[in-house]
Amino acid sequence: MKKIIILALAFITALQLKAQEGHQLWLRSKESLPVTVICTMHSPTLTIAEQELRNGWQGESGATVKLTIKKNKALKSDGFRLDKNMIEATTDLGILYGVYSLLRRQQTGEKMIGTISNPSYQIRILNHWDNLDGTIERGYAGHSIFWRKTNPFVVTLKDKALWKAYARANASIGINGAVLDNVNASPKILSENYLNRVKSIADVLRPYGVRVYLSVNFASPISLGGLKTADPLDSSVIMWWKNKVKEIYSLIPDFGGLLVKASSEGQPGPQQYGRTHADGANMLADALKPYKGVVMWRAFVYTANDDDRAKQAYNEFMPLDGKFRDNVIIQVKNGPIDFQPREPFSPLFGAMKKTSIMPELQITQEYLGHAVYLVFLSTMWEECLKSDTYQQGEGSTVARCTDGSIYPQKYTAIAGVSNIGLDSNWCGHPFAQANWYAFGRLAWNDTLSSSQIADEWLKMTFYKDASKKLRERNYKIDWTKNFLKPVKQIMLESRETAVNFMMPLGLHHIMSANGHYGPGPWWAPKGVRPDWTPPYYHQASSNGIGFDRTAKGSDAVSQYHQPLATEFNNLATCPEIFLLWFHHLPWNYKMKNGRTLWNALCYHYDKGVKQVHRFQQEWDNLKPFVDSAQFKLVQLKLSQQYDNAVLWKDACLLYFQQFSKMPIPKDITPPV
Ligand code: GCU
């Protein structure tokens, strides 16, 4: 009997490993060359580092590589130094990151010798919006890898294999944390059964340096603990959280901390007890402090009656600057509204000077075409991270205001809302994997360019397919010229393309309701909160279009530091990419190139559609370079994207035309 069970388990494991071949992301297995690895210390993490090096070595055949752990003032805790035949770090994890970096450099041809690499942020974390029934909020790649509805507490070998592959992928790009459940958190996550499952996950993730964190519901003391209140100043509530935190750490000694969405979109929070965000966050921070845990408290707040949703987070949080404990980090979405295809950066970055602030980016493409559109989000994040806030003079970029370069934050962190699920390619769209990759790389180095990130990802993901295919066909084609260059160009253009056919010139939040896929600028049923309806944002009428956030309007411009406040407020200096974000303008307003605003809008929509069409044509030429299943999948998705781009263009132009009453320019395909 025992033998049969062992055989069955071996068979299942073999199947799982096989299934994972298609799961290999940018870690495609390589034909490695022999290498001798010398490491005098031992730990599970170092064992992984040694194995990875042996399995992936592409350097000099028969070389000897030494892994050395020692103090070096130039290295931060996760940092490493690469030298000829040596990887040096101050921790085991630093060695592991060094190994992945070295292997990547061998594949991409990037410089190696003498490289010192330290992470920009201490906490580089994925937020999984995974519900305990296995569904994922805004997830487009299947169900959760952590939770499921049936047999929710059984941990199978398959679960463990998947979590391990997940941890490995994260470690390979430097991600070192994961919040396992949705920000709209179920109190049940803190019950004994779920905490035991969290422990199992943590045990698998640990050797790869990925610490687990949980999202918690602020009303848990009531719904789970049976208390009458969740008031953060109530002594029984304080005690409940202290005990709960103690219980968590008894299971998971390296637990990272808690993420909280409170007093936001109907979630319970301190405000319903007349307390502030600081009261709520500090109460949890005090419970976590003895264990070195952190609280990530989200600033995603807005109310139905606000005159301008874009201003609310700043208004609520600025007065609290300096009132948070040093283990509280305020988690701020990149823009002031909600992960739109383009937003200016949130004015909170750099403005809160005595509080740790962390950017929250969205990897899952909630507003950017789900798992259908090819959109490389790196350029969008780069735009945000490199935006100058001017808060401490020129060069106070969002990156530098949050990574500890300017303010002495005790903790620095950056979060990405994950796009992964049980889908056989993890992310739904082959190119969506590049967004997971890009998030990790930017979290490690917030000065990287999207061009470099795309370059690395393409080389690691596609080179093997192509070379094999080309070998089979026995003809010489220059891979760099014929594959890398055009695909990289598509990736780098892809986000602007989506902006063009969805929400050009600073338009925002005009997508279809609830699903957030496709256009819906007209959607405004009676009884729905106005700030959930697109007309609140585009303000189109016969007078013109755009949200007036100038000093004469909602005055959101004044939340930005000079010279930005004036630059955005003034029509002559406001960047056209943000025109209708900050200004309400007549349809015949003259753009810099002499076109009317209406015509400019028409041309942007049309350009976006043409760009997608060009992507399709270019992809069609790339068949010899890509595995045929992937090739067809991308082809299919591009054709769906094209159809949806046409829909965006036609729907928006027809809808806005009823107000502009101006003709569509003759050289644009008319809406049908
Ligand atoms: C968006 C999204 C929600 C999510 C929320 C958040 O509004 O549509 O699904 O819960 O952001 O970030 O909390």
In short:
InterPro entries: A-glucoronidase_C_sf, GH, Glyco_hydro_67_C, Glyco_hydro_67_cat, Hex-like_dom2. One of its GO terms (biological process) is xylan catabolic process. The protein has 672 residues and is an alpha/beta fold.
Describe the structure in your own words.
It is a single chain. The protein has helices at 2-21, 44-56, 92-108, 157-173, 192-205, 220-223, 235-251, 277-288, 309-317, 378-385, 398-402, 433-444, 450-473, 479-502, 534-538, 564-569, 579-582, 597-620, 628-660, and strands spanning 35-38, 63-69, 80-83, 86-89, 115-117, 123-127, 177-179, 211-216, 257-260, 294-298, 328-333, 356-362, 413-417. Helices cover 40% and strands 9% of the residues. The protein contains 19 helices and 13 strands. The radius of gyration is 25 Å and the shape is globular. Helix 1 packs parallel to helix 4 (157-173), helix 2 (44-56) runs parallel beside helix 3 (92-108) and helix 7 (235-251) crosses helix 8 (277-288). Strands 6-7-8-9-10-11-12-13 form an eight-stranded parallel β-barrel. The protein has a five-stranded mixed sheet with strand order 1-2-4-3-5, with helices on one face. The chain is α/β, with parallel strands linked by helices and 672 residues long. One of its GO terms (biological process) is xylan catabolic process. One of its GO terms (cellular component) is extracellular region. Keywords: Hydrolase, Signal.
